[in-house]
Amino acid sequence: MEPEVNGNAIEWVDCPECGLPAYVLDRFVRPSTDGPLLHAITVCARMHRLCTTEETAGQIDAGST
Q1: Could you tell me the sign of the dihedral formed by the alpha carbons of 40, 23, 49, 16, in that order?
Q2: In 10 A of CB 37, how many CB atoms?
Q3: Which of 28, 32, 39, 55 is deepest in the core (most CB within 10 A)?
Q4: Which CA distances in Å does 56 have to 2, 34, 40?
Q5: What is the pLDDT along the chain (65 residues), one digit of tens a residue?
Q6: How far lies 8's CA from each of 3, 35, 55, in Å?
């Protein structure tokens, strides 16, 4: 069984900085001239806390669990 945070399963991805396991801390949408962009904040085992667009961090999948 997956650990849960606030009733939602934790999403594990590769850290965009070092490649170690990271979890998605938050997701949000920001406007842009090309339309809304989905962003994700990730935190990894080395405590890299990064905010990337999901377009940039292609390994982050909104539907993964």
Answers
A1: negative
A2: 14
A3: 39
A4: 26, 15, 10
A5: 345 555 568 889 999 899 999 999 999 999 999 899 999 999 999 999 999 887 654 444 444 44
A6: 9, 27, 23
